[in-house]
Amino acid sequence: MQPERKHTPEPETASTDPAVPAASHPHWVESDNLIEVLRRNAEGHGDQIAMREREHGIWQEYTWAEYLEQVLGFAAGLESLGIRPEENILVIGDNRPRAYFGMLGAITLRAVPSPAFPDTTPEELQGQMEREGIRCALAEDQEQVDKLLTIRDEGYAGLELVIYDDPRGLAGKEPPGVVAFTDVLQRGQAALEADAGLRQRLLERPSIHDTAVLLHSSGTTGVPKGVPLKHGHVHYSVRNASAAGYFEEGEVHMAYLPMAWVGDFIFSIGAALVLRFTVNIPERQETALHDLREIGPTLYFSSPRAWSNMLTRIQVGIDESSRFKRWLYNQFMPFATELERRRLEGQAPSFGERLWYQLGELLVYGPIKDQLGLSRVRRPYTAGEAIGEDVFLFFRALGLNLRQFYGQTENCALCAAQEPDSIKLHTVGSAFPGVELCISDDGEILVRGDNVFDGYYNNPKATAETLQDGWLHTGDAGYLEDDGQLVVLGRVSEVVYTAQGDRFIPTYIENRIKFSQYIRDVCILGNGREYLAALVAIDIGSAGHWAEENGIPYTSFADLSQKPEIYDLVHDILVHVNGVLPEGLQVRRFVNLHKEFDPDDGEVTRTRKLRRNVIDEHYAPIIEAIYNGDKSVDYRAQITYETGESGALERHLAIRDVGNSRAQEEK
Amino acid sequence: MFYRLTGVYQTDYAKDRALWPIPTDRWIALLLLAIAIAAPFIFQVHYVANYMLPWLIWSSAALALTLLMGVAGQLHFGFAAVMAIGAYSSIHLARFGVPFELALLGAGLISAVIGSIFGAAALRVKGLYLVMATLAMQYLVDWVIVNVPAISGGAQATLRTPDVSFLFIPLESVWLYYMALLWTVVVTLFVLNIKRSSYGRALVAVRDKDYAASIIGVSPFRYKLSAFFTSSFIGGISGAILAFCYYQAVTPEQFGFHVSIQLVAMVLVGGLGSVVGAYLGAGFVLLLPMILTNFVAGLGAMGILNVSASLLAHIPLMAYGALIIVFLLAEPLGLAKIYDNTRKYFLVWPFRHGQS
C-alpha cells in the first residue's frame, strides 16, 4: 500500500492527565496584537484598500482607515451594550465585511468571537451556545436571526442580544433583543466623540496573551471541542508562513470559505492584517466563482474537493466545446500534464518542449486560467485531505504552482507546506521555520511551536491528552522522509482490520475512489467483515452529464443512481481502483446510494468528513444486505429537512458484485 | 483566446457602463484608431484616397441611417436626398463666404429641418407606407435640385466645391482624409453613446412598440421627430463632407435613388442598429464591387477568364449580388452579428459558453 496523504485537523483520543501548559511563548513579540497591527495599517497605509465586498454587482471598498473606524466604533458600541472581557460572542453567517469588523470589535474589548458555520442546525448551535455561555450574537441576516430567536424561545434563555447586519426583513421591525449593526456602530461613534480618551484606551486594551478567537474542531466523533487561539498564536504562525515564502505582503485574497473554519481566520484576519492583504468578499456563495474571476486574486486557497470540482467543470466544458477547441485542448493538455509529471521527477524539459508549452500557454493554458479567474494567482494552495494525483498534476500543468499544506485548527492550520522546488506527490512538504515536527513511537505526528494552542476550551481532559510536554498530538499517522518532508498516512484512530486480519485505513481507499469525477462520496465498509464493500454516492453533476451524453434518461438523483449504466460506470471505477489494491483489500460489493451524504443528517461533518458511526447506523439494513449476499435491498430512508423536520422514503437499491471485468460479473 | 477577463471589476455603476469595459475590446478600438490615423503614412496614397476615405465617409452616413432605422426603427428609403441637401447647402453656404465650420453646421440644420418635415409622415404611418413617404422625399428633392438652377446650376451642371479651410487648416491632400476621419470618429462616439443613454433607450422603446412607449411616458411624437432630426443632421453633414473631401464636385446623379438603396443595403448587410455593422456594411457595399471588379479584370488580363468584355464587366455585379444573398442567408442579422459571434467564440475560448 502506498503511503497515504491526509490532513485532518482534529485529534480525537481521550484520557485523563491534567497538564495544561503555561502560556510561556518565548518567541512572541509583545506588541503583536491584531488591533495594534490594524492601527499601524490605518496610520501608515490609511488610503489603501483593505477590503472589498461585491454588492449589487459592484465592489464596495473599505480602506484601512475606514476599517479601523468601523472596528473601534463597533467595539465602543458593544461596550456600551454591556459586553465584558473574555465573554464569548457568537458570529454566524456568510462572510461579510461587518462580520469581520464585528469580530475585531469584540477582540478590541478582549471579548472572544466564536464563529459558527451558517448552516449549523439549531440543535448543534444551541449546544455550542450553552457550552460557551453566549449572551450576544452577531448574525448575518434575517435567516440567522430567526434561528437564534427560535433557540432563545425554545430553551436557551441566556441569549440577551442579537446584532444583525443585513437589514432586509428586519430593519424597523426588530423583535425584542435584536439591534442593527449600524445602530451599535452609531452608539459607539457617539461614545467615541463624547469621550476623547476612549479611542486610545480601546486601542491599548488588547494584549498578545488574549484569546483572539474561539474555533471548533469539526468533531468526526462526539461534540466539537472549542479551540481558543491567542493573538500570539495567529501572529507567530503567519510570520512563520511568510518567512517560508508562503504569503507575501499585499496579496489579493478571496474570503469565500466559511468564517468558522480556522483557515479563514488565519487568512482573512490574521495574515490579512499582518501582511496587509486586500480581502475580497463575494456577493453570495453562489456567485463566488464569478466574483473570483472579477477580482483575480494572487493568493487562492481551495479544498481538494473544490479543485477536483473545478477540473470536472473544465472537462465537462471541453466535452461540450466545439470540435476545433476540443482538438486543441487534447493536443496541449496531455502534453503539459506529462511534462509536469517528468518535471516533478526531476527531468528538465527540453528547449523544444518549452517552446511548445509556451504556445500551449497562449492557446489553452492561459485562457483556461483566465476563465477560472486564476491567471494572477501566484500562490494557490490546498489542504484538508488528500488531493487526487490527476487533479494536482492538472493544475500544476496549467502553470499554477499548486502546493499542499498541512495543519490543524490546534496549530493555526500552518504546520508544514510543500516547498516550490522540491514537490513530491506523496508528501505534504516540510515544516515551516519555527515549527517542529516529530513522529512518536507509535507513528503519530507530533507538532511543537509557538503556534500550537494552549488547550481546549473548558476541556482539561482532552487538553491533557492532546498536549503532552508541549507537543501537540495530531492524531494523524505518518512518517518523515530523509529530507524532512512529512508523509501523512491517515488517522491513527481509523486503522481497522478485516476478519482476515488485513489492516487498512478506509480513507485511503475512499480517496482513491473519489478521485473519479463521477463519485462524490464513498464509505468503505469492512471493519471485522470478511471482505470490503462500498456505499457510493454519485456526483449528480458529472454523472448526470455523462448520462445525458449517453442518452440515459433520468429524473432525480435517486433515479439516476439506480440506472444499470451508472452501476456499470461505478463498477468500472472500482475495478480500476482494485487494480492498485492488495488482494485482501479489494472492494467486493457496492451499493449506489439514493442520496448524497448530508451534514444535516449528521452523516458527514460540515467540512465533509465521514462520520462512520452515524453512517453504520443509518444504513444498517443496507450493510446487512450487502454481507448477506442479497442482490438488492428495500430501504426505508430517514430524511432530515433543512427546517429540522424529518420524513421517510422507501427506496429499492440494487447491490452489485465487483468482478474483474464487467462481462464476467454479468451472468 | 485573446480576451482576458480576470481582474476586470468595477467599483461604481458608471464604470460598469463604460463603452468597452473589457481591456481587449478597448485595445482593439485603439488599434483600429491608430491604424486609421497612421494610414496616410503606411498605405499608398491611392488606397487611402480611393478606398479608405470614401469608406469612412459612407460609414458615417450609414451610422446616421442605422441610428434612424436600427435604433429608432423608422424606415428611410430617401437618405441620399438628405445627404444631397447637406452637400448642396454646404457648397452654397461656403460660396457665400460662410466659414466652412459654420457651413457644415448650416448644412446639417437645413437637412435636419427638411428631413424632419418628411419624417413627420412617420407620425401617421409605419413600415411600407413610411417607405413610400420617404421615397417621395427622394424624388421631390431630386426634382427640385435638377429643376432649380439656383441650386444645381442646371440639370447637367457640375458644381465644384470652393477651397475651404477647417480650423485654419486648408482642406487639401492628406487633410481631406483627416477631416473625414475626424467626422467619422465624432459620429461613431455619438452613436455609441446614444445607445447607452436614456435618449437611446427611449428611441428603442419607440422602435419596439410605439404605443407601449407612450404608456410608459415616452412620447412617440417627440422621439420619432427627434430621431429624424438627429439622423438627418448627421446625414446632411456627412453629405457635405462627402462633397468637400471626396467628390469635390457634385452632380444630382451622385445622390440618386440607387444611392439611397445602397445606404439601406449598408445598414441591412451590416446589421441593423449596430455601429460595427455600419462600418462593415459600408465596406461591403462600397469596397466589395471595387475589389471584385479589379479581381475579375485581373483574371481577364491574365487570360484565365476568356469571355467577352461585356460579360467580364457583369461578372463582378453577379458575384456581388450573390455574396449579399449568401451573407444574409448565413446570418440574417448582418455582418455585425458575424463579428459578434466571432468575438464570443474567442471570449469563451476554449469552451463553448461562459464558465462563471
- Could you tell me the CATH topology label of the domain at 34-229 in chain A: Rossmann fold
How much of the polypeptide of chain A forms β-strand, as a percent range? 15-25%
Distance between the termini of chain B: 16 Å
Side-by-side strand order of the widest sheet of chain A: 4-3-5-6-7
Radius of gyration of chain A: 26 Å
Query: Structural class of the secondary elements of chain A?
Result: alpha/beta
What does this structure look like?
The complex is a heterodimer of chains A (667) and B (356). With 667 residues, chain A is an alpha/beta fold. Among the domains of chain A are: 34-229, Rossmann fold (3-Layer(aba) Sandwich); 495-665, ANL, C-terminal domain (GMP Synthetase, Chain A, domain 3, 2-Layer Sandwich). In chain A, 38% of the residues lie in helices and 21% in strands. Chain A contains 22 helices and 28 strands. In chain A, helix 2 (64-80) packs across helix 3 (97-108). The longest helix of chain A is centred in the middle third of the chain and has 22 residues, at 323-344. Chain B has a domain at 43-255. Chain B is mainly alpha-helical and 356 residues long. Chains A and B meet through strand 2, helix 10, helix 11, helix 12 and helix 13 of A and loops of B.
